Amino acid sequence: MLYLVYQIKKKYNYISYYIREKYKDIAKEFKVSYQYIQYLYNNAIEN
Known about the structure:
Structural class: mainly alpha
Order of helices and strands: HH
Number of domains: 1
Radius of gyration: 13 Å
Helix content: over 70%
Number of strands: 0
């Protein structure tokens, strides 16, 4: 069970890293601050 949780967490970390990398590109394109996009992303997860 613990191993499964570890695998899910690892996968989630990879996905969130991938999303952050994508957001950096988007932020550059739209000249928005990375922190603002991170804030939106965090709120999307919570809601």
